[in-house]
Protein: RNA helicase
Organism: Humicola insolens
Amino acid sequence: MAKKRKRETNGENIIRIGDKVISLEGYLTKKPRAETTAPEPKKDATDSTADSHKEAHPPKPAPTIRPTGDPQYFAARQALPLWSRQEDIRRILREKDILLLVGETGSGKSTQVPQFLYKEKWCQRRTVRVKNGDRMEEVGVGGMIAVTQPRRVAATTLAHRVSKETGTPLNGDRRGGDKGGPSVKGLVGYSVRFDHRVPPGTRIKYLTEGMLLQELLRDPYLRKYSAIVVDEIHERSVDVDLLAGFLKQIITGDKAGRGGVPLKVIIMSATANVETIQRFFSDVHTDGDSATSPSPEPKPSPSMGYLQIEGRQFPVEITYAPQPVPDVQQELLKTVFKIHTKEPLSDKHGRRDILAFLSGQEEIEAAQKLIEEYALTLDPSLPKVKVFPLFGQLSMEAQHEAFQPVKGGFTRKVVLATNIAETSVTVPGVRYVIDCGKAKVKQFRARLGMESLLAKPISKSSAIQRAGRAGREGPGKCFRLYTKETYETLKPADLPEILRTDLVNSILTMKARGIQDVMKFPLMDPPEQEAVEKALLQLNVLGALSRDGKITDIGRQMVQFPLTPPLARVLIAAADPKYDCLLEVIDIISCITAGEDIFLQLRTEEEREEVADYRNELFRREGDLMTYLTTMQLYTAENSDRVKWCKDRKIHIRNMKQALNIRKQLRGLCVKQGMMEQPPPDPQPYTPVSPQRAEAILKCFLRGFALKTAVLAPDNSYVTSYGKHVVAIHPASILHGRKKEAIMYLEYVFTQKNYAKKVSAIQANWITEALEEGL
Ligand SMILES: Nc1ncnc2c1ncn2[C@@H]1O[C@H](COP(=O)(O)OP(=O)(O)OP(=O)(O)O)[C@@H](O)[C@H]1O
């Protein structure tokens, strides 16, 4: 990609990518335009019209089916509302390829459906003949069921639960098996980032949507699988929308790639927008890659069944705040201790623990501190309180702690979670839910290339899901820290992520999967054309797409990394002998992708004085990226007490550990891809990076972030190179208040003001160099 490419010069800056002609106006020059907002969701998530589509067959009387697996779970499984409908589920799927299954939270969808299906005839592995180039070859198709989850913690906890119910080991040894029956290999497995447990013989595999998308790149017909269960579709992450598009292509395609074996798709949720899903799977789009041209007439549904299962296992009593709550943290504290002091610790159903939903990591950590401090003042005759935080950036081990029974019998567990625990999961012991009514939502403004992360009111769908976490092991209670009137004003569902996110990643995934015309890819809610064009252009600048819109070798290499395309591009540039700084770049990327900032915010002058000397050792005048590098290098060189090392510098211990995990994974991937030799083990002596090497590292980052740069204007403000907006350096950056010739920033966020975050000082001419290298 090093060669310079000429832009078309018919009077304006334009570039052709495939069949798109995109203007470069505004990237290098100003082009004022009004901003638009993304459209509202079209339909209520809890749409009552769903009833009119109910399965035509009346429910059959509950057959007396004996569960298989571990007998200690028989009674609980038989009590689930889904249990008596298992024959209906099997019957529909014998006849049809798609089933939309709507059942209340806790009715047994995620745990039972795959168990109902894996013994079905259509679910057995078959050997078929498929075309490979000019010749026919024999391949195995089917045998496994994939169950996708929006989050890692849901995939792993469900796999643990189902492996217990089936009485088969997750670690793949042969000691398990139905009691008294023949020994079996593993039946259940899971696959999430950093962790895969797929024992030999696995028939039911829980995995994140992202992992299945990765598998699709390697196996476009999903030949391993007989069925894909898309669980919690209502969350409408970009990944699940892409997955739905790919699945639609497979089920409506000619099945030759699967040797004629159909792939069954089961879509599940408690709060799905039934109409949107039915409409999506009913009309057959043409994906633009097939030989046929788009059909003007929607074709009939490719064999879709719908089943709505009423009833929940246990009731959940909902209480609203009588009036608006001025201070949510205070109200949370009051509610936790009201429950704790007034309600029993357990009953005949088991423990009665608390799960509270807060908007983000910061709020959780603040609440944890408040609750722990207050708990110390309690009467010693009362049970103790043990708080567990639960948010996405925690390591999997730390997340799993919240799912363990609390140690010490006379103790109540209080789990403080983000919406990571909102769907799919059962947190054992939880019978009380406290819902603060907010969640941090990412919103990307394509035109500005800017992302905001603001706490916003949740949707009704989320509120229902949150309450659903309380009634899973016995009758539960949900305390909503907002009024009934506020609840009524909540939107039925959240805006699908694809309409409010940077599309660069999604489009690269489509291209890697061979989709040429991304505008024709089937999506439930297609994004605006302008957002797609911006993403195409950015991918071209990154060198991931050629000018004719095809994915390049670099693009193909980029999708192998669990990173955003700009960061993946930086990583690949770092392996180029011209820059040769892969280990350093991995260290920096690990720190910036490990969660919220690894540097804790210093709130008081005292705190600042306390850490000043320590932190000065880490700071580099080149800015935040080089500071992260020094921090990681010194941290890994430390071989006595890393916890103390972090505490002295007010560095987030958990995030630093997570950064180490990411570093290990990225190093492993780079070795596997032949980008570097196995690096020497830690600890390595610390050697400061020379200014020349720092320049190479920053230039490498510019390969991914040339469009995220700003130049100092005569009035001392920073003006972005793309769009010409004024941006300020965020107070958390070490370059805050400094005047540099030009800056590069990895994030552009809107909170109270437009802020550049993760900032580095660069030279203005490096920007043009990097852009020319890309174009
Ligand atoms: N990890 C677990 N520990 C204890 N009980 C569990 C666990 N997972 C599931 N269960 C039990 O199985 C029941 C059914 O769970 P399942 O996840 O299958 O329901 P669901 O219909 O998929 O719910 P949701 O829509 O809320 O995800 C739960 O209500 C709970 O009683």
Notes: Residues 653-672 form the longest helix (20 residues).
